[in-house]
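Predict the 3D structure for this chain.
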Amino acid sequence: MKPKEFKVKTLEEFQELIDKKDISIAKAVIESILSNIKTHKKHVHVLSVQVDNENTIFDITLEKCHFKSTLEENLKYFEDKEMYEECIKINEGITKLK
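Done. Predicted structure below.
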């Protein structure tokens, strides 16, 4: 699965999305983890962020050892948003990682 790409004007704009816990970023991270559960790679590329004013692309990776904790952390967020179908997928992923 190809990582989701985000386009922002400034790095601060991307930081705002993270601070606000933007659902599109959370979904992209979860989808990337779930599609790479069985990988043997140590790191997985989860996001690409294109920052226009810096003419730069940042590739965000996640170590496989952090998959479970990232899923658990996001599960609470998806429960709060009442996104129960995603919660089921996240729980299945957590179970596979145990």
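The CA atoms of residues 49 and 74 lie 20 Å apart.
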